[in-house]
Each structure stands twice: as structure tokens, then as C-alpha cells.
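FAQ
Q: What does a multi-component entry look like?
A: The components come first, one per line:
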Amino acid sequence: MKSVLKYSIMALVAGMLFASCKKDFLDKKPYTANNLSTAITNENDMKVATAGMYSALRNTDVYARSVLVKGDLMADNTFVTTSNSGRYISLNNFVFNNADAYAGGLWSGAYVAIKYANTIINATGITASANVSQYQGEAYAIRALMHFELVRNFATAYTVDKTKPGIPIVTSFDQNALPARNTVQEVYTQVIADLEKAYTMLNQYRGTAYFSKYAARALEARVYQNMGDWPNAKTMALDVINNSGWSMLAAASYVAPSGSLGTSGGSATNTYSPGGYWANAAVQTSTKNETLFEVACDLTSNNGFDQIGFIYLQVGGGYGDILATDDLYNLYSATDARKGLIPRAPAGYRSGQAGNVTLCYKYPNPGNAADKDDIKIIRLSDIILIAAEAYYNASDYTNANLYLNMVAQKRDPSFTGYTDTGAAVLDDILTERRKELAFEGSRFWDLVRLQKSWTKIKNLNPLTSVAVAPGNNALLYPIPVGELNANPNISQNPGY
Amino acid sequence: MRKLLALLTAFLLFAGQLFAQKTISGKVTDDKGNPIANASVVVKGTSTGTVTKADGTYTITVPANAKILVFSSVDLAPEEITIGSQTTINTSLKSADKTMAEVVVVGYGTQKRSDVTSSVTKIGGDKVANVPMTSVDQILQGKAAGVQSVTFSGQPGANQQIRIRGVGSFAASSQPLFVIDGIQVNSGDVSRETTTSNVLASLNPDDIESISILKDAAATSIYGARGSNGVILINTKRGKAGKTQFKFTAEVGQNTHGDIPSAGMPLRADDWAALYKESYINAGGSPANADANLLAYGYPGGSDIDWLSLITRKGAQQQYNISASGGDQKTKFYISGGYFKQEANVIGSDLKRFSSVINLDHTVSNKLSFAFSLQPTFIRQNTPLSNSSAFSNPVMEFSFLRPLQNPYNADGSLNISTATKDFGSLYNPLYIVGNDIHSLNDFTANTKAEGKYNILDNLSFTTRMGMQYINFEEYYYNNPFHGDGKAANGRGYAYNTRYFLYDWTNQLDYRVNLTRNKDLNLNATVGYEAISSKGYFVSAQSQNFPTSSLTYAAVASSPTIGNNSASDYTFASEFARAALNYKGKYILQGSFRRDGSSRFSQKNEYGNFPAGSIAWNVNKENFMSDVKFISDLKLRFSYGSAGNAEIGNYAWRQTLGYGLNYNNQPGGGFNNIGNDELQWEASKQTNAGIDVSFLKNRLNLNVDYYKRKIDKLIFPVPTSQTIGFSSISKNLGAMQNSGLEVTINATPIAIKDFTWDISFNFSHNKNKMVTLPAGQYQVINGSFVIRPGQDFYTFYLRDWAGVNSANGDPLWYTDSTHSATTNNYNAALRVAGNKTATPKYFGGLSNSLTYKGFNLTFDFYYNYGNYVQDGWAAYFYDEVNPSYGKYTYNLQRWQKPGDVTNVPKLVYGSSNFSSSASTRFLYKGDFIRLRNVSIGYTAPTRLVEKLHLSSFNFYIRGTNLWTKVYDKNIPFDPEQNINSQSNLNVFYNKSVTVGVNIGF
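Then the predicted structure of the entire assembly, as C-alpha cells:
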């Protein structure tokens, strides 16, 4: 009996020892994350959070591909070829349902970026410094950019009806929030306020991969352009043009094509490169050429097969699903450097596509083993054309043509320049914008904000198309079904 | 002086023993008079013993004070005989009462079958050996009532989906806990790149002694927070005292692809081209353009490829196992080595396994004993990207490729041209399988060291340290010329995944007679257990290879991924169980476990899981003694709780996670919303069962009724996505499984030389959601909707109304009463009808007929009442994606007004969503499969002895040879994922094997 007692006591003691170290035993912390509450306590933490924020823009359905693809595909620049991988069919057909993956991806992806921005903006207890001001300024700019992207994709254009439902404005984290849609006007007001804040806080140039003071200014110009607020658009655009130190490249540096597209034994071959600015996959860190802000993609951080280049490239493993329309191709004169960005391949180059095949070569580096294409979000030429459009709207055709020709003649040195007056100037500006910003997701928004009608080519063989007119429900993405299911306060767009 | 004394004493003792010994001899036979070889003869309470010879005779020298000899042999009831003055003791051993006397492995111990109060199914090792399948969980299909085991892929080493008594969770795992030799192991698919893998494939089924499937709370709640989905206990073979027995088994054969219904066979060239042209014209194109396009595809005059024959093959099947077991009363051993090789029916899919087991038991004294296990296994598995629409999945290409695409060039080389007629977007699977690498090397070792000390006769202390080491090395290589590696000029991936788990258990087992007459006794177990598991992951990826002859990443120019990370979890627990047994008639059992886990915040770190049960052996009552036809009757009832903690290791924490890098700078972001209120899912299960045997156990019937309610179900409650998260995990909602399990074992005929055994089981489970998070009427879960009162897997799809016979448009209903239809997919109503992915009934029927040495067995598995969704119909129906291959069923398309059919007018590149998800693509999942048929011959003892063997058996076995499918339109085999959605997996294997088992 004594031994029973002895061993029982031993077991008991062992059990107690065990219990006392249990607390540590049961406290397992993740290896790749920190508790949020203690994760941003100093300037360096904030820098790291800022990088994380930008990485959210690299989402496939935000800037890595879908937003840019949409701007051309739903307009008159591109179409999805018949033999395809199944991507972007809804955009090509101008038919969405509320479970559309591209709409859903943008909605959730943009709000993730806003969450990251808010984490930085609302961080407390960090010693103020120029760097902290810069990082928070970048966060304000990103928050503005994402709200702007959301409101124009999911809501009625400001120029059509600013009193319509916009999208929820989110400036802080509340896990129980079930926000209703702010009006379009409220969203734009918030975007402008954030960009003004960013402009005052940004104080350094960290390269084109980050928001700088004038990148924020340039974005503000674009926002005012979308609002049809031309006096402000002009002020912002001129601030960038005159004060930023950015300049456009000479035509020969902008595009310098080499090689050719051909077929051999029935297969596409390719030695083609656009050369110049568009073939360079590196971000700028000290120079200030063309790009005001771009989303960096590098060898380790990129979207793999979902890189935008693969949706256009026919060779090197690309899907090659999206081709340019003949209409767009025919706009470029033979001496226009930009023609090198939209090369035409011989018949048979694309499996299942009869006739000529016109390609986009603004993103030639998805298979580059050293670096990947960065996604240009704001370029100087766009801002110059905004200035031209602002002058046009002030009926100052001289200055409108001046700024318009700054771009047109830079790209095509043999071009004698636009000299139209009156409404024709706007047509010239829109044509130039279409040529300059092709494949950068811009065209659709020009057509929408100016309430144009157009023919969207769905397919060239057989030729099918959709006639798009203002009021078409598909001009607005559907609010994703997941949001509707979770948030009773949100309202759906018409037609879904 | 002292030394001398000790020596003297020893001598005296020795001499005393020497002089007081006596020799006993005799013969041991079975109840038919046949001699029993290798029966053990032991002096009770000592380690003195011997074994019988081949003729059943034995001779043993016993001390004079020896009182009782114990005779025992496998499968026979032990016999105790008082020695007295006789020198010859002959005895015959009777067959063990198969049902009630057998010992059943339960959590942290064993119980006599008659004392079991819970719902436990025992499966003997012989039922899982020599089957041409890689893992034991696969073999369990149809073998136990209440256990749904789904093989969704014919890939050798594929993960198996097992549900015990229905789906048990929404967000957490529904897989049961596996316990091997007392160790709570990591199981399932831990690979990171391989399409599917299975840790359990590392256990050679030939080394399994027994499997216990714990189903009700009385059995599972001692596993506390991990027991809710049921527990599968697997014990490996251990040595038995006696002559060393060698066993050799060899099996060879081949695997071919399972049946593919005619509706799902791809169209061949002429039909494919005809439908292409018809649809092109229907879309407004000109016939001339259609012909031009077809010509570009190589029609007419081009190829007409039978892709099925190209991507399938006759795969070799082999296994060889050799084992030795034996030892003496002090030290026993079981060692084995096995080789298993399976080439699946689809090209590029195979597995090789080299397994070994060393199990040792050593008794130091009456007080102290040890047990050791070492079970290292090496697996090499090749897995083509084998599900979904991966372009290099051969099964996907079987359906996606046009019959016009010729995999070979005129000179016989493989065609990788990207011309229109060739492999522009889709890949040539023959080239990919020949040139890419998708390999998995798995080294897994389970080890155990156990010590047991008998503090008293009836009180023992056991400490058990078990370890599981899993090392997965995955290597992927995509060639630079064709396929996924082309864009990067060749890609190599190396993923190293290591899991190390230890499980340390200390327990006290105590049994005591509470009354002097031994009518009432108590069995009690208390213990504590600590489990710690750490996963460690290294990933590397490189691209741009200089040559296709070297495939390792070291030669590539550009490393793109190089990182390591880890993830771990711990459990610390106390448990106890006590059973009161009155005369073997009434057994009352209670158990309790308190679990702590790292997976929850300190607010909810601990959970308590009690259970109680009672059994009444009615046949032991006096009033039953007259009821001769009932040989056994037991009633059982249990109630208790268990939990489910199988969620992410750090799910509760609100974190900022890193790895969100940008512009070559480290980045981090608020990545996990967390919830420190999160706690276990808690199930409460009631079970009522009856076990009854008739006619001297010729007919056994087990019936269990259960109701398992799972509360505090973890739900990813959808949030507004505007907060930057789409959901937050909360313990909300409840689910219930209730059902009936019936098992019948019968021996309809047992006459001289001929026996017929039947085993039948039937399972019915009704799953329903009880409550959802407040304010939520339903949760849409892909193709399913979760609503209170309905099955978890209730299909929620647009309601197909057929084809408008006037114009060939697809139609869907717009209201639940089917009064109106639309041809606008977006306007169609999604309906949650009674079509579910959950079968209403399933089970198995086994027959075994033995005549003299011949044995015929055939086992069926049946599954009834679920629907299966074609997850890829959009590509194979209508002409929405005209460049791809098409199902034969498209030939039934609408062509002219008045046609009544289910396939709409074919319109090239149509955007009418006719082939998008709808009830059109739900098929009845009912099937009966002949899982196993085998004919064997066991040589008689006389013949075997002449050959100096102890046993010889030869068999021919067919696996999955015949399947009856009840839906004539289903385009694939109905056995698909647990959620009944097809996913272009490797076809199931039909195998024919021949084998021998030799004992010597």
C-alpha cells in the first residue's frame, strides 16, 4: 500500500509540474506574422507596412491585369479571340452577373488595399518624422486611388449623375461595419481631400514605384477630369507639367522596335521586341521620365501566369487571348513611334483566328528571367492631354492644340500637328488619348465620362459586336453578391 | 562472507528447483481433433513455457509448485488446466467466441467485446492485407457501417475523404482523427505542390493487426477536442511467443482505367467538325468561313485521335511483403519489409513504397515491461497535375483536346507545334508527361517507446512516447519547350515539408473488485497527454534552364522563390475513464477529458468533454437461459461530448503578416482578422445500440441509432468586404447528423468442408443544418446552399427547364412552381431542392464461400441517393467554347423546330450561359461496385508440411471489375469528391492481381 501511495504522489507531482509549464507549452505564435497591436510601432515598421500596401495593388483583379484589360476590352480597342482560355469573356460580351469574378475581385482587392492604407494612416504612438509623413502621405494617396477606382467601376459616372449611389467610404477599420453606399459626389469629395492631404505630406521622391508629391497631383488631375471639373483639372495638370521635373522621352527612346513576328511550320515565332521605354522592365529610382507612378513587379513578386503581358502575348507561354481591333491599328501613322507597340502578325499567327492578328506589345516582359513588366498607372502624357482637354473646355483651342501636339509630335516627329478648332479639338484629343494610352485601361473611361456610344467588337471571325450606348447597365459593374449577402445596407446597381 | 552467503543461497534455491521439477507432455488439438501447431503452453503466472510442434505435441518441464497450465493459440479460446499429479495433459481448444470474447482496442486501452459500452467497429488486419490499394483508409470503404470513405482519384497515394457519421463541420476539418499504436498522428494531405497525397499511404496495410473505428461519444470523447469526427485506431502487428514464423506474400497484376460512360466519351473527328460547322452557321457565320476554320484545324483529311487510349495504359501492380515474428515469453518481435508498386491507369501516375516495421516487446519482470516500435517508410510518388483544368493534366486533356489534334508528327516525334491545328493553348499531354517531373519523395517514420510498470497486481503505470516524422520532398520541373515551363524557359520547384510530432502519454490503469465475491468490479484509467507538432517548410523555385537534360534548379539562372517558414500546434490534456461492471451484466462507464490547445486564445484555451454510457448484457440474465436461439444480446446507450479543433493553427490571432513584398522591399499587412472568442466546435452525441447473436452466433446483428448535434460550429461569417476581409470566424450555428447503422454477419451454411459467410452493412445518415448565424437565412457555399433544416450539401443551382422546342433556346425556371421560364440565365431562379451531394444510403456486402481449401469472396459497395455535379460542363457542352473537345451527348442537340431534347441549339461562342452551372448538370450518383472478387486456394496441412512450410495460399483477385451506374446520361464515374463534384481526376483503377501467401 505504501508503494501505491508513493507512486500516486509521484504521478501527482509530475502532473503538477506538467500543468505549470503548460502555459508556455500552449502559447504558440506564428512564424510569419506579428500581433497587429504591436506590429507598427516605429518608422521602419511603417515603411514595411507601406510596401505591403503597394503589394495589394498587384492583385490580378486590381492593377496587375483586370482593371487595365477592362479599359480597352469594354471599349473599342481589343477583343477576346475565339480560341481562348476562358478569361474576360464577360467583359468581352458586355454581360455580367452579380457573381462576376472580375467585379468581385476588384471590389474585395481594392478594399484590402484601403485596409492596409488605413492601418498606416491611423497608426498611433509613432514619433513624427519626414519619413513618417511621407509614408502616411503615400497611404492617403493609395486610399484615394482605390476609392476612385471603385467609384468609377461600380457607380454612375460623376459627369452623368453625381447624386447616384457611389461606394462606401472606408477610413478606419471596424469589423462590424455594414456601410451603405455614399453618393458619387461624397466619394469624390473624400478622394480630393485625401489627395490634398497627400500633397502636403509627401516630401520625397522614392522612385516611380511609390507615390510622390506630383504623382498625387497627377492623380488629382485625373480625378477632376473624371468629374468634368476643368478649372481644377487644369490647375493640377499644369502644376505637374510645370513643376514636377518630369519629361517625356524622345520617340526613339520611347519605342525602338527590332525583330519580327512570323510563322514557321504553322507555329508562331517571335524575335520581336518594342525596345525603348516599354521594353524596360525596371522601375525608375532617380530619373523622372514618362512614368509618374507605376506598380512594381519584379522577378520574385509578380503575378506569374496572371501577368498582364501573358494575356496579350502569343508566344513564350502567353495565353494570347486578347487581340487589338483593326480600328485601333489603323489609327497610327507609319511614322508614329507608337505603331511599334501594336505590331501586326501574319495570318495563322493565332490559333483559331483567321486573317491578320494585331497584338499589344506594351508588356513584353512576363517571361523575362531578370525582371517583369511594371504596371504604369499614371504617365505624364496622360496629364498633358488632360491639360489640353481642360483648355478645350475653356474654349482656349490654341493652348489645347499646344498641349495636344506636345504629345502627338513627340511620338510622331514627322507629324505637322493638330490645328483644329471647336468640337473637332475634342475629337483630336480623344483620338490622341486612345493612341497614347491604348492597353493602359483608359479608353473605356473617356467614352463613359463623355457619354459616348460605340461599337464593341466581340469577335472578328465571325464578326459579332455589341452596340453600347449611355445607360447600358453593363457600364457599371454589379455590386458583388458576397457583399449583398453580408451587408443589408448596400444597394445593387440596375440590371443585376 | 556476504558473497559466500549469497552464493550458497542461490545454490540452494537452484538445487531445490532442480530437484522439484517435473515433466509434462501431451497434445493440443482443435475441437475437430486436428493438431494445433505453435500453441503456447505456459505455467500460469510465470514466464516458463513452450510451444507445440507441428503435430500438436509438447513437452514441458515445470516446477513442482506449478499449479496451472495455460494453453492458448491465435483465434482460439485459452484453456487453463490444473496440473495435479498427472504427467500427460491433452486438451482441445475451442474456437474463440468471435463476437463477445474478442478484445477490442479502445482509446488508451483494450476492452473485452462483451464489456464494451460504446459503438466501436473492429476490422481485422486480414481484411485489409493484400489489396492493390495504397492506403488503409481506401480499403475501409464499405467495411464498416457509418463510415463513408470516398476515393475521388485513382492516383496511387491519393488522399481519401472519410466521414464518420456524416459531415461534422463547415470551416474546420470533417476528417476523423487517426491514432496509430496509441499516437495521435498527423494525417491527410500535407503536400504543397502535389495534386494529392496521403500520409497514411506510408503505413503498409499488411502490417496492420487491427483497426478500431470509434463512432459514438462514449468511445470518442476520451479524445476530447479532437474526437468529434470519430477516431480510427490502428494497431500494428506485434510478435507472439513461439517458433519464429515467416510470412511471405507476393502479388502481381495490372491496373486499367475504370468505366467511362458513353455520354462522356469525346466526339470523334467527323462529329466534332459537323457540330462545329453547324454552330458556326447558327451564330451567323458563313459556311465557307466555317470550312476555312476547320481546314486550319486540319479537317478534313487530318487526324482522328482516340485520346483515351493515349492517356491511359495498363499499369503494373506489384507488392511483396516478408515478415518474421516470434520470440519467447520475455522478448517478442515482429519485423517486416514490404515493397509496393502501383502504376495507375493514367500515364505519369505511379507510386512505389518501401516499408519496414520493427516492433519489439520485452518483459523485464512481472513488474516491468517495455515496447518499442520503429516503422520507417519511403515512398516515391509521381503525380501528373491531376485535377481541374491544369493544362498539363492528362485527364483534363482527354476531354479538352480536339480529336483533330495529333500528338505525333509525321516522323513519329511528339508534336509541340503551336499552329492552329496543333497545341497552341492546350498542351500535348504525351510530351508533358514525358518531359516534366512531378515527384514526391516521402519519408515517414512512426516510432514509439513505451514502458509499463505494474505497481501492484491491479495498478499499472504506463508512459508512452510516440513520434511521427514526416519528410516530403516535392520536386516539380516544367520543361522549357512545351507547357507551363515554356514562358520561363524551364522552371524547377523544390518544396521540402517536414512535420515532427510527439505525443507523450502517462497513464495509470487500475482495476479492483469492489465486493468480496467479485461480482462488482471497477476498471479505471487516468492520464495526461502532451502533443506537439511542428511543420517546417522550405521552398525554392528557379527558372531559365540551360538545357533540358538537366532538371535540377542549381543549373537555372534565376532563383525566384527561396524561403522557409513553420507552423505548429500543441495540445495538453488530462483524461480519465472508469467502468463499473456488475457480473458482466451491467456495465456503467464514464469518461472525461480536459484539453488545452494552442489553437485558441487564453480566454478559451480549455475545453471539457465528458461522456457516460451503459451496457446491459441481457443474455447473462437468468431469464434468458431458456431462450436458446439467442446466444448473445446486449443493449447499449451512450451520451457525451467531443470537440473539433481542426482549424488553422493561428486562426484566432489578429495579425499583421509578412511576405507582402514590394519592389524588392519587405512588406507586411493586416492579414488575419482573428477572433479571440473562438473556441472548439462541440458535438453532443446520443447513441443507442443493440448487439444480438442468434443460433450459436451463426447470425449476428448490430444496430445503432445515433444523433450527433454539433454546436458552436465555426462559421466564416461573411462580413462586408469593405472592411478588407470577407469573413470572420465565429462559433455560431449548429448542425446535426442522425442516422441508423446496421451490420449483419451471418453464416448461412456451415457444413463439413463448406462454409458460407455473409457480411452486410447499411448506413443511413441524415444531415441537417440546425441554426445559422443570427440574421442569416442561408449561406451560399459554391454550388451549395446551407439553410436550416436542409442537408449541408444541398445543391443550389439555377433550375433547368429544358430546351425550347420552338427555337432551341436553353430555358430555366424563374419561379419555384415552374410556371414560367426564361432564356436569360441571370433571370433564372436558383433552387435549393432536395438534391444533395450526400448519399442517403451506402454500405457493403461481402460474401465468402469456402469449400475445403478453396475460397471465393466477393464484396460489393453501394451508394444511393446523392446527385453528382459536372464541374466542367461549361467546356464540354454546347458550343460555348467551340475550340475544345465535346461530349458525345451533344449529338442530341436541337436542330429544328419541334425537336424535343435536352441539348439546346448549338451556337458558336454563345454567351447565353446554356452550359453554365444549373440543375441540367446534376446526375444521379447511385452505383453498385464490385469492389473485390477473389478466388483462393489454401493448401492442406499435409501438403504444406511436405514442402516444409507452415501455410500456402494462392489467389486471383479482381478489384473494381464491375460497376452498375443508374444514370444513363452521367458522363463520368459517379464516385467523385465527397461534395459530389467532378474534377477531372485520375480515373479509378480496375485491377486484376494474382498472389501467394507462404508461411514457413
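Q: Is there any commentary attached?
A: Sometimes. For this entry: DSSP finds ten helices and 51 strands in chain B.
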